[in-house]
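User: Earlier you gave me the apo prediction for this protein. Now I'd like the version with zinc ion bound, so I can compare the two side by side. Same sequence as before, with the ligand SMILES added.
Assistant: Got it. Here's the input I'm using:
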Amino acid sequence: MNIAYYCPACHKSNRESLAAATTTLQCANCHQQIAIPEGAINGKCINRCLVCPSTDLYARKDFPQKLGVALVVLGFIGSSIAWAYYLVLWSFAILFGTALLDLVLYIVMGESLTCYRCGAQYRGCEDIEVHGGFDLETHEKHRQLAARLKPLAGQVENADIVK
Ligand SMILES: [Zn+2]
Ligand SMILES: [Zn+2]
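And here is the structure of the complex with zinc ion:
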C-alpha cells in the first residue's frame, strides 16, 4: 500500500509506502511526523484517513483522465485524416480502436481511496468498496466544514501531529 498526501505543516506533496505496522508518516521535506491513529490500518485495509481526523473516504478508478482525453482526441484526429484520404475502413478502425483502448485502460486500472477532507490518496489497499464511491453531499459537507474551520485550521491540524 502507499499514500500520497500533502504535509499539513509545509503543504508539500509526499508519497510513502504503508504497511500494517506503520505507525508514523514523515514528511520528506520538513520532517514533520504524523502519528497514525490506532486501528486506522487493518491489515491491507484503510479504515480512516491517516493524515487528518476524517473517516470519510471514497473509492474511485485510478484512471489518468488526461490520457483518456488524449486517446479520444487522437482517435478523432486519426480517423479524420483517414476519412480525408477516403480510407473509410481505417477511419472507423482508428475511431473504434482508440475507444476500445480507452475502455480497456479503464477496466485494468486499479482503484484508489481518497480522503474527502484533505485529499490524501491511498493505493494498493483492499476492500475499498466498503467506503463507497464519490458522494457529492459528503464532499459538500467537508467543503463547508473546511470553510468554517479556516481560521482555526492551524490548531485543528496540529492536534493530530506529533511534535
Ligand atoms: Zn512537511
Ligand atoms: Zn484526510
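For your comparison, keep in mind: Strands lie at 2-6, 13-17, 24-26, 33-35, 41-42, 45-46, 57-61, 111-115, 121-123, 161-162.
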